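Hi Q.,

Before the meeting this afternoon, I wanted you to have the adenosine-5'-triphosphate prediction in hand. No need to reply - just skim if you have a minute. The sequence and ligand are here:
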Amino acid sequence: MVIIIYKGRFIMKKIGIMGGTFNPIHIGHLIAAQEVLDKMNMDKIIFIPTGNPPHKSKREVISAIDRYEMVKLAIKNNACFEVSDIEIKRTGETYSYDTLTELHNIYYETEFYFIIGFDTLKEISTWKRVYEVCNMTEFIVVNRGNSLKEIKDEFLIKEKKFNCKLTLVEIPDIKISSTDIRDRINNNESIKYLVTNDVEGYIYQKGLFKVEFNKGL
Ligand code: ATP
Ligand code: MG
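Predicted structure with the ligand bound:
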């Protein structure tokens, strides 16, 4: 842990937490994280792939290790990006509440900001101990093809309901999703430039998504 002392004062570190299934990680995640890093003057962004995601059907989600390895490959050239295995090491379902509690215990003098896309903001009511999560962290919300009006209306609803602190960081709309990438693989369509070269190589080398999808459907 690094504590920066400037003119005799402690400077809090600002860390962005980018949680996700990353099934697989794509350039939308990377661009969003970089925009937040720059615009919010963060020190770093930690990507935290989920272990056993509570909100997703298990059939569609590949192993946590493969998702973690792909995040590692995708961020390897960015000194301000890190990946954490904090959630994939946990047994049972993983929740942001537990992750934040663990991070607060590991890092001193650090402000955590939870980076989420607008679609995730709409779902926070379903999160475990959401009121406590809102107390522990601020949310940085990025647009995902949504109008400013839609975002502002949702902010008012959520701020009123959860008393949460929300900040919008506007990013170029990136209409890419992991679902779309999985569909493309399954339809033998290219995923070039939607994921990094290394991630593309990893997916094909291990035959990810395609086989998994054909089973049981
Ligand atoms: P899936 O289609 O499987 O749900 P996804 O593309 O939404 O995948 P997630 O791993 O679910 O990816 O997303 C992790 C976080 O990144 C979420 O908060 C989500 O809103 C955000 N996010 C994902 N894709 C984008 C994007 N293109 N632009 C902005 N935010 C994004
Ligand atoms: Mg999603």
